[in-house]
Amino acid sequence: MDSTLPQAASAARRRKRLTNRIKDGLRDLSVQLALLNHQVGSHLDLRDTDLECLDLISRHGPIGPTALARRGGLHPATLTGVLDRLERGGWVVRTPNPSDRRAVLVQIIREKEAEVALMFSGLSSAMESVCAEYDDADLLKIADFLLRTARASRIATDQLAES
């Protein structure tokens, strides 16, 4: 009997357990971040979708409404309502697009961006502590893993949207 077969089966089981732990951890993280976002939104009197759009505008803005709708996976009519609420609340401004005078760009108001950042400061500080426990090589692997996981999630989202 080949002694490598039990070792290979054991390694495969271990690999499956580790992969499942990562998947479970990502699910837990997803839930916790959703709960945190909901709490932040409640404190700022923003709906969850409004807060998500603010984050996208902060990271990718100034941005056109069509591009924002695509990035946020929102129907354009839904996005119009979100932008109207955000503008009324003083969170964003719509300005003419200098490269297309028929279009507008949406950008976040910097003081409001700081207000949102303050609400996430507890998580930010905790993440600094967590990251301090890893060396640079580990952080590079973690960052790569998260980017690749986000990409896989975008692909799965796009596939569901198309079906």
Automatic annotation (TrEMBL):
InterPro entries: HTH_MarR-typ (IPR000835), MarR/SlyA-like (IPR039422), WH-like_DNA-bd_sf (IPR036388), WH_DNA-bd_sf (IPR036390)
Annotated ranges, domain HTH marR-type: 15-151
Gene3D superfamilies found in the cross-reference section: Winged helix-like DNA-binding domain superfamily/Winged helix DNA-binding domain (1.10.10.10)
Domain of life per record: Bacteria
Name of the protein in its database record: MarR family transcriptional regulator
Organism (species): Actinacidiphila acididurans
